[in-house]
Amino acid sequence: MIGPPLRLNLKAQVTRGNLYCVITVTMNLRSRSQLLGCLLALRFLALVLWAVHGAKALDNGLAMTPTMGWLHWERFMCNLNCQEEPDSCISEHLFMQMADLMVSDGWKDAGYEYLCIDDCWMAPQRDSKGRLQADPQRFPGGISRLADYVHNKGLKLGIYADVGNKTCAGFPGSFGYYDIDAQTFADWGVDLLKFDGCYCDSVEHLTDGYKYMSMALNRTGRSIVYSCEWPLYVWPFQKPDYTEIRQYCNHWRNFGDIFDSWQSVKSILDWTSSHQKGIVDVAGPGGWNDPDMLVIGNFGLSWDQQITQMALWAIMAAPLLMSNDLRHISPQAKALLQNKDVIAINQDPLGKQGYQLRKEDNIEVWERPLSDLAWVVAMINLQEIGGPRSYTISVAPLGRGVACNPACLIIQLLPEKKELGFYEWDSNLKTWINPTGTVLLRLERTSQRTSKLLL
Ligand SMILES: *[C@@H]1O[C@H](CO)[C@@H](O)[C@H](O)[C@H]1NC(C)=O
Ligand SMILES: *[C@@H]1O[C@H](CO)[C@@H](O)[C@H](O)[C@H]1NC(C)=O
């Protein structure tokens, strides 16, 4: 009887930014390909150990996995017309209805916890003491009563403000009021702040403002997730310092607002893959790249495109902030957004963001390492003509050459769940991918013997 060629036991444990590894490697090499496999495995170890020195995250104990919730912007924008459109204007009524549904329709159980207000909640002026106030017609109970309502449902409340002189929609900005505003939000019981970057006249004001607000939130003593748009507004002038941004923010937007269209989703994926060298390694527990809201359940994406968004937001370890109407959503979109297997990938405790592995012939392959040495692989078919295309991939290079070494169990999670079986290191995997759709796979490493036994 011959033992497995390579036994590799790696236990990786992440505790608040520190990574501990216990490694045992037993080698019994019998061929060149096994030596290659082994070298690739060691390269992977080097990669994991390297992560120990990753950038320090904002120390507020929050967002250890990407934030999940609902955010009003993409679907409801700045609708102030409560006279004619009482069900879609930005009002406490809208947020109370969403809070009710987040609990009754399984969203909270699936992990969607933060109910977030975006721009246009404010009255046009601060009060006599210089504090922000909610629009009295649209939020008659004020934000503090809404926060109580949301907390009583077991949810958390997010709010929006701006680092500059005005919000993007022209409401009062926080420049000159950072301490007052942080304290006001804490007094109201707010749990997340999305801090926008409009109407800011210099990169210095922007950088100082984002940092100052982070410290002002900390000084309130309340745990408040801090969602920044800092790098997005720095990019036109210089390359953002992501190591610094991670020390102050729980997540940060890099790219423009998402729209309800395939063109928009595609442009976000293109931006992310073309900048991945600079942004992937900085993400991790406590601090995440934010590619913006999930628009699944709206009007602009086909079913396959919705699958692509869900799969790739999981690969990118993105905050999952839906912007849709939970009162009117198809059972299909709801099932996709509540897919436990895909959410588990997004929320994987190792917290390493995935990346684009290759792009060839209009197919993109992305992968992401998971805890327990599993990997997830996504294949997108970007060809917008014709029907489903077959794509054959050699499993050997997947997961830095170790995902299927010596063998792996492959489970397809999207478009529907099915077990594809065991694949040895030298085998190929053939899949069919719909136009603009994605096939999402989970790869679990197994020893050759186990796979032979089970086959
Ligand atoms: C404030 O920062 C300190 C040190 O960085 C940290 O220990 C503490 O938990 C933070 N408090 C809040 C409320 O975020
Ligand atoms: C806000 O406006 C004042 C007065 O015009 C200006 O001095 C200040 O630099 C502005 N701040 C920002 C962040 O744009």
SSE layout and pairing:
Layout: E1 6-15, E2 18-27, H1 32-50, E3 68-71, H2 73-76, H3 92-104, H4 107-110, E4 114-116, H5 142-152, E5 156-162, H6 178-188, E6 192-196, H7 203-220, E7 225-228, H8 230-234, H9 242-248, E8 251-253, H10 262-274, H11 276-279, E9 288-290, H12 303-315, E10 320-322, H13 331-337, H14 340-346, E11 355-360, E12 363-369, E13 375-381, E14 389-394, E15 407-414, E16 418-424, E17 428-433, E18 438-446, H15 448-454
Parallel strand pairs: 3-4, 3-10, 4-5, 5-6, 6-7, 7-8, 8-9
Antiparallel strand pairs: 1-2, 11-12, 12-13, 13-18, 14-17, 15-16, 15-18
Helix pairs in contact: 3-5, 6-7, 12-14
One 2-acetamido-2-deoxy-beta-D-glucopyranose is lined by residues 164-165, 175, 199-201, 205.
